[in-house]
Amino acid sequence: MRFFDPHIHMASRTTDDYQNMAAAGIRAIIEPAFWMGQPRTNVGSFIDYFSSLVGWERFRASQFGIAHYCAIGINSKEANNEGLAREALEILPNFALKEGVVAIGEIGYDEITPAEEFIYQAQLKFAVEHDMVVMVHSPHRDKKNGIIRSIDVALEMGVPPHKLVIDHNNEETVQSVLDAGAWAAFTIYPNTKMGSERMVEIVRQYGPERIIVDSSADWGVSDPLSVPKTAHLMKERGIDPVAIELTCWGNALEAYAQSGQIDVDELMQDAVIDQSLSYSDNSVLRGQQPRIDEPVKN
Amino acid sequence: MNEQITATLAQLLEPRLSDAALDFWQKAQREVAAGAERSRFSALISMASRHAKRVPLEPTKTELAACQKAVTGWSPQRWNLLELLRVALICTREDVTEPNFAEDFESLFVYADEGETCALYRSLALLPAAERFVWRAGEGCRSNMLSVFSAIALDNPYPVKHFDDTGWNQLVIKALFLELPLHRVIGLDERRSAELTRIALDLADERRSAGRAIAHDLWLCLDANHAERSRALAEQLWPEATPLTRSAIVLGLARAAQHTEVQRLAETESDIDVAHAIDAALGGKFDQQQFARLITNKSETEL
Ligand SMILES: [Zn+2]
Fold first, then answer.
1. What is the pTM of this model?
2. Residue A166: beta bridge partners?
3. B112 touches A: beta carbon within 8 Å
4. Does the distance separating the beta carbons of B180 and A55 come in below 8 Å?
5. Which of A29, A81, B195, B244 has the most other CB atoms within 10 Å of its CB?
């Protein structure tokens, strides 16, 4: 089986993860911009981070045959550092229009403060102006209320519901997201929050339409193999293979391909390992093994 | 900007663009020529990806000759269409010699994604007063991204012209480490030195101590200095070397001006390909192109 993990923070993960992900069938990923686990202190820190998402991390992933896309945005937590967030907002256009940027995200609410609302709205405006998909992070506390508000504000700003992905859903929030016409993504965390078992039941109950499974693996305890593991559990528990394919591959692809930044035909083919080889041989090599025998030497 | 260069770029570019892409290019060209703001210029470079894909350019022989004529050493043979469009946009700037351009150009690097970064490094050799960007080019060589390093190090006439000795030697040896084809480092034939030879020979020792193979391309680094060490290395490797390796050694020894040694090896050589390499080397053919033909086993047109 082939998988798409549309929410994972690879900058915090190792090459072992990349190897295991590729081996488990993960063919494409989206890395949304987020918090680093500690607050940034200056705009240069945002610049270097965004730059790594469109450059270095993309290259790293390509060495393992994984297509790496990203979402650019100012996260809700750091929206509360108002001066810095406004500076970050100014440099956002420098990165948001790059090749392979499939959405503005992850953005939204954390504590649901006026400062968060300002940054959220400004980024929604940018997304609407540039016809982009929006990936919304939903708050951990007061989740249901936060999700309803983030949908309302997004629609008010003119984001069409089919270009809106609401992430980190649970049993309590899924219905309102689906009712609004948006995509409902679920983050599968080991131990806490949404586990694979609960995900199976959600797909059983709601069906596969506009439901997306992701790992949101980051620097915390999390599992970059959440998507394939959940797919296998779904299979074991008798979920229709078509529903598995949609929730673990097709839906995310459809949602984010609206950006025009995903070459779907190329994704359907075998992995292209190393872009530099396509320069050296003037053709795209396919199915070659990753260069994992030796690190990139400096 | 040199008109021959901009005309060559346009001739390469325009027949390969779709109607929509051609429209983007013509509008963008007018906008840039009229003096677009930094942010707008940067957005145009980014948005080029919406109009041209990373498809290989596959230039014809005539086109390659035109490039070579416009800028010595310039070969877009391995460029892709998107890179060409971006380079053409950069070369459309009317103010390329002004400080304002230099600032905008540097700012492009700061905000560039991987594909843009490669295009920017490929543009360097076409720009006037390009010595202004030598620090930036060095940054490209310090990159950990193979694609970025390759964009500055291979098929690019910029480094040989502008790098100091330290930068040049680092580029060549890093390319060797990365197992990139050294015959594509433009100007290596002309810019070998005692220091480069020593570094290459030290690297050979290091690899032998670690029990690891020595890349054929290492033999391209040698010049007539440290000849004793070069001969010793050849003698150590020769008994167990494959025919291909023996050809590389022969070429390296010729580059190190050790023709007597090559003649000595010829006496016992029975492999037809190696014998051919020996004849060619003794006949004075031991440049990068000859090496490429030998080692990659490709015909001239494929190189
Ligand atoms: Zn996240």
1. 0.87
2. A136, A184
3. yes
4. no
5. A29
